Amino acid sequence: MDVNDRIHDQLVKAGVTLAASLPDDWVNSLIRRVDRSDRIKHVPVGREAETVCIAAGAFFGGARAVAIMGNTGLLTCTGEMATLCLRHAIPVFCIVSARGSLDDHKVYQEVQGRRTIPLLQAYDYPYKVIDDPDEIEMIPDAYEWHRLQKRPFVLFLTKKLLGVTNA
Amino acid sequence: MKAAEVMKVLAAHRGDAVVVCALGMAANEWWSATKSEDSFYMHGAMGFAASFALGLALSIPETPVWVLNSDGSLSMNTGCLLTEAGQQPKNLKHFVIDNQVYQTVENMPMVDQGRADYALMAAGAGIAQTATIDNIPDLEAKLPGILAATGPYFVRLRIEAEPDYQRTPPAPYEGPEMKYRFGRAMEKKLGIKVFGPRGF
User: Fold this and answer.
1) CA dihedral (A88, A89, A92, A96) positive or negative
2) Which residues of A touch B (CB under 8 A)?
3) What is the distance in angstroms between the Cα of B56 and the nearest Cα belonging to chain A?
């Protein structure tokens, strides 16, 4: 089974019914998989902070949502994550490409690779990097755990996990 | 027309709508008019009340959802109009309280210097139903039709900037208490589960 099918199926198992996204070439296949889903409603957005705020709004409608984006996008929405989600203790589950890693040689991903995790640590946002396909099955547990944490949570997907060869 | 007059009319026509308020003037005036706990009063993420409302509207498609946005907040995230148009949520009404100033911060002038037409921008983004209203009789006359229409509907409400910019205080609760009051109100109002059996 394709890694994106496995992630999709675990999101469904976690009860996720809404996914807001903005493309990044590493997670585009996952976004396309979610878009084809008959279990998850896909909401494309124009700016990554919208994914976070859409997911936060969905929380109050009793829905389980995720925000899918690239690492660069995550950096752009840390302010909204803080002033909405931290301030009101709203959990938001973010699925983010681990851009800027040792195997990512795109020059415009360099800062993200070095500074994203220290930034998350500064905000005290929990995160988990998934590199092994067998770890995908932890998604339902991670989803439940992030609700208990009552704050943004970031699940990073690595280049190796996603099988990216063209980026 | 003035903000408090507009809120009074909106409140009278609210029905079962769940309301999301942009931070600052819109939130404060709506709280003052309604004291409603089945409304969410943004305290941060300026520009993203519309995104929050869209996520809410998509998750409760049978319930009317309003966003009371402001010109300052809309200017910070005009892209929300594109996302809203892309989804065409049938239950979402998008009101923009347009007073041409950043009222909460000493009535500083808006970035567009009074030249922007937000309703035209919404139409250009793909929201077919739009209106601009600048007086109370028109609001009273047009609001029933706007609310009866299958959304999305974008309504620009042109109001007077008021010199006493901090006249209306915010709701007297905030942060996590806002989360739990609103979440519990949603559970009670809609019969849904926002929180799990252990409260999170």
Assistant:
1) positive
2) 17-18, 20, 41, 43-47, 49-50, 52-63, 65, 79-80, 82-84, 87-91, 147-148, 150
3) 4
| Residue B90, token pair as written in the block | 């049938």
Instruction: Give per-residue pLDDT as tens, A95-110.
Output: 999 999 999 999 999 9
Q: How far apart are the first and last CA of chain A?
A: 22
Q: Which of B124, B29, B38, B36 is nearest to B68 (CA)?
A: B29
CATH homologous superfamily of domain A3-162? Thiamin diphosphate (ThDP)-binding fold, Pyr/PP domains (3.40.50.970)
- Spell out which residues of chain A touch residue B38, defining contact as CB-CB under 8 Å: none
Q: B53, B93, B101: which is closest to B75 by C-alpha?
A: B101
Residue extents of the structural domains in chain A: 3-162
The CATH fold assigned to B3-190 is Rossmann fold (3.40.50)
What is the value of ipTM here, to two decimals? 0.97
Tokens of A155: 């699940």
Q: Where are the domains of chain B?
A: 3-190
